Amino acid sequence: MSRLFWILARLLPALLLLAVPVAQAQKRIALTFDDVPRSRGPFLTPDERTEKLIAGLQKAGVKQAAFFVNPGQIGSGDGVNGVAHIDAYVRAGHVIGDHSYAHKGLETIDANAFVAEIDKAETWLKGRPGYRPWFRYPYLHEGGTDEVKRDAVRAALKARGLQDGYVTASGSDWNTEDLAIAAVKAGKAVDMDALRKFYIMTHLEAADFADALMVKAIGRSPIHVMLMHETDLASLFLPDLVEALRKDGWEIVTADEAFADPIHTAQPDTPSADGTLTELLAQEKHADPPFSDPRGNLTYTNALFAQRVLHEKNR
After folding, report:
1. Which residues of 179-202 are buried (b: 16+ CB within 10 A; e: fewer)?
2. Which tens digit of pLDDT belongs to each residue from 63-82?
3. Which of 233, 257, 252 is nearest to 53 (CA)?
4. Using CA atoms, how far apart are residues 216 and 207, in angstroms rounded to an integer?
5. Is the dihedral of CA 227, 59, 200, 89 positive or negative?
6. pLDDT digits (tens, 9 = 90+) for 155-210
7. Element containing residue 98 per DSSP (H, E)
8. Which residue of 53, 62, 150, 166 could cross-link 235, Cys pair, CB 3.0 to 4.6 Å?
9. How far apart are CA 10 and CA 262, in angstroms?
């Protein structure tokens, strides 16, 4: 009997270790939406889209998302009543930031003209309920290989008290929405359940890829920021996406929490300052490539969309 007790005493610590799960770093992410307000998508009117998106965020228990606004788009395309949509998001508890006035990429204009676009948007945004002093570059372009232009805009943002509204993960939802629009216009049958699964998959894989790359680059998992857009697909599938993220171990946090992460001070010095902050930091820290999610390869993604959502063969 004493020998049995001795064996159990030796085995007990190992058994307890197996019984208690090893604590893992919490994966946290905030949801943000660009290009507000957008014109009509493949399935909904702008009014329907805003209503469903607000309801979807509430149903999913997302306390606060951020919407990055292009004031120059207000009132354009399909009778968009952008002010009403923006105000509705804020009344629902969400916040708004600057995405430039007319969504011109920094690579297409000089630094002074680009800063003027920022200022014009700020004139419209400042003083509005829900405003945050965050600026997100259109297309995530910070000037490409033009370091002089890049640094001039960074200095202008600092002088204005504006924080970079960076992105760490992107599922290229704008491309999925474009593919759906093209399919509907061409009269093709869209498998909506397959589209929902495709939408969830691209975002989930993008988030996990970004987290793994960020850990390699900086040694920790920051509070991530997901780039999304004000699309019909977000309005239709957001509760399912949030559920999938949570099942994968992600906690959905507010945009305020995300942009308070110390990583917000990072200004990577890379050969090309275009892309997510995750990509830029991975390049700066010389992490092992690839630096972008394979879903960012649109040739591959478009073929996958055709196969899974449109059920087209030989793609």
Report:
1. bbbebeeeeeeeeeeebbbbbbbb
2. 999 999 999 999 876 646 78
3. 233
4. 14
5. negative
6. 999 999 999 999 999 999 999 999 999 999 999 999 999 999 999 999 999 999 99
7. strand 95-98
8. 53
9. 45
